[in-house]
Structure formats: structure tokens, C-alpha cells
Amino acid sequence: MEAWRTNLAQAVLAKFYRVHQSTISRTVRLVTAVLAVELARLDPPVTVVPDTALIIDGTLIPTGNRRDVTGTRSGHRRRHGMTVHVAADLHGRVLAVSDHEPAALQDITAFRAWRLAEQLDRPQTLADKAYQGSRMTTPHKKPRTPTSPTPTCASSTDNCPRSAQPSNAASDTSRTGRSWPPATAAASPNSPHSSNSSSDSNAYEPPGRTIYA
Questions:
Q1: Which residues, 6+ apart, have CB-to-CB distance to 152 below 8 Å?
Q2: Region Disordered: start and end of each range (predicted)?
Q3: Do the Cβ atoms of 94 and 55 come closer than 8 Å?
Q4: What's residue 210's pLDDT?
Q5: Which residues are CB-neighbours of 73 under 8 A, at least 6 positions away?
Q6: Fewer CB within 10 Å: N-end or C-end of the chain?
Q7: Are 123 and 88 found together in one domain?
Q8: Comparing C-alpha atoms, which of 132, 136, 128, 73 is closest to residue 105?
Q9: 72 close to 65: Cβ distance less than 8 angstroms
Q10: Low-confidence ranges of the chain (pLDDT < 50)
Q11: How many domains does the chain have?
Q12: Does the residue 12 lie in any domain?
């Protein structure tokens, strides 16, 4: 039973039990046939789905990358395997399991190949977003919000957001040939140079420098 519980390779099981790998292979095939007969008798397959709320979901059975088998890689899960779908009630009791399908198929495509798909495809069945496009109850997609184009400004004087101003636009504190505060600004009444403000306004001021009287 370790082969089904752990999904270990037959070579690993053979080394663990100190037998040949062919012995493990024959044992697994024999026990699998016996279990299939007994399980069909004890728990017969469901042919009619009860008219109650159900939950359905898909799961991946990892198989590894088989050289002679194609279509087993799931792009969503990024693993190789087979996909099965499980239907359960709201209490978690499993009611039915689908046949395995290649993992490369999308969940909704593999679900439609199930013999119970027509009975389960109804609003009473709850499923995730992988089953959108069916009649089952699935989460709503988040609506796409239209993105408005970013406004552009020809100059820094335009009435637009600051982030939309051109990157090469000069700010109030970084204009070419000027310093802050401006040299021509009126001096305060308490300044000792307030009386010479009229004469200093005509002084030559090189670009980028401030001349004080």
C-alpha cells in the first residue's frame, strides 16, 4: 500500500523492501485489480447526482515527466500529472470522482469530458474561477477599470498636476540665471540696506550670481 500512499518510485520501494523492481511492479498491478473490484462493489459509481448544493474542484495527480507520454504538463501548476475532478457536498463528503485527464487541458475542458458533467453543470454547484463559462456558480471576475491617459503639459505654467509637468521644466527655485531669493526683492524695513534699494536695483547682476550692496 505504500505505492498508493506515498507515490514513490518502484525502484525506491524495491530498495526499501530489499526485493527486485519487477516484484514491486507485479504486486502493484495485482493489488490494483483487486482494489478496483472491491471498491466498485462497496462504493458503486454515482450515476445520478443528488439535487443538493455541491462543490466541485480539480486536483493534480503528479506522475513525473514520462518520455513516451505527452500532454501531461500543467502550465498553471508547472508540474506533470493527470487531472481529476472531485464532487463533494457541503459537509466535505466525496460523492464522485471523474476519470483522469491530461493536466495540459484546462479545468473546464477536462470537466466537460466527465460523464456527470451535464448533471453537475447547474447553478447549485459551486466552483472556482477555473470553471467560468459554465452554468455553475463561480466567483465574478474583477471588472476592468478604464485607465485614463496621463495629461501632458506644454509648459510649467499650464494648469495641470505637478507630476504631469515636463521633466525638463524649470521650477520656481531652479530657473536659469537666477537665485533664490531674488536679488531685486525689496529689503525689509529693518534691513540696514533698505535706504540703498533704489540705487542697488540698477547694479549689474551677472547670471547666476547675487550682488549685495
A1: 160, 164, 166
A2: 125-213
A3: no
A4: 54
A5: 65, 79, 80, 103, 104
A6: N
A7: yes
A8: 73
A9: yes
A10: 164-165, 185-187, 191-200
A11: 2
A12: yes
Same domain, 58 and 37: no
Q: Is 159 a domain residue?
A: no
Strand, helix or coil for residue 74: strand
CA distance 210 to 213: 10
Instruction: State whether 107 and 66 are in the same domain.
Output: yes
Q: What's at 143, amino acid-wise?
A: P
Q: Is residue 78 included in any domain, yes or no? A: yes
Which residues 6+ apart lie within 8 Å of 116 measured at CB?
A: 46, 49, 87, 96, 98
Which residues form the domain of 7? Answer: 2-42
149 in a domain, yes or no? no
Check residue 141 and report its DSSP letter: P
The C-alpha cell that represents 56 in the structure block: 466541485
Q: Would you say the pTM of this structure is higher than 0.70?
A: no
